[in-house]
Design a protein that fits this description.
Layout lengths: L4 E5 L6 H16 L4 E5 L23 H11 L1 E5 H6 L11 E4 L1 H9 L4 E4 L1
InterPro entries: DsrEFH-like, Sulphur_relay_DsrE/F-like
Pfam family, one: DsrE
């Protein structure tokens, strides 16, 4: 049995390798049957919007739209409330399956029994 995994992604196009690592780890964990929750914060919040993941390019890395789709197929993706507000978007703007929630929801997830948390 695998333990649930929460991955907090803080990097976007500003730090592409770190961003790609976070999405890759999350997607591989989903594919392995792990209960995965990905939190998009800071610059990674932009990837909650339609078409933004397709703008990401990192040589020798899996395409971000494919990783995101894999995560959404078997896990959860949440955008930080404040991060979305600072970028002027809301629940009606994000791709299907993505939710917007605040710090209390994040804390609840990472403090749950047996959860592993990673920050990128």
């Amino acid at each position: 049995m695998t333990r649930p995994l929460v991955v907090k992604v803080t990097a976007g196009m500003d730090a592409p390798e770190r961003c790609s690592q976070a999405f890759t780890v999350a997607a591989v964990a989903v594919a392995a049957g792990t209960d995965v929750s990905v939190w998009l914060t800071g610059e990674s919040a932009w990837f909650a919007l339609p078409g933004r993941a397709a703008e990401f390019d990192l040589p020798h890395a899996a395409p971000l739209p494919d990783l995101l789709a894999g995560i959404l197929a078997g896990g959860r993706v949440t955008v930080c409330t404040q991060c979305a507000a600072r970028r002027s978007f809301g629940p009606d703007d994000v791709i299907p399956g993505v939710r917007i929630a605040g710090a209390a929801a994040f804390v609840d997830e990472v403090l749950a029994d047996g959860v592993q948390a990673l920050v990128y």
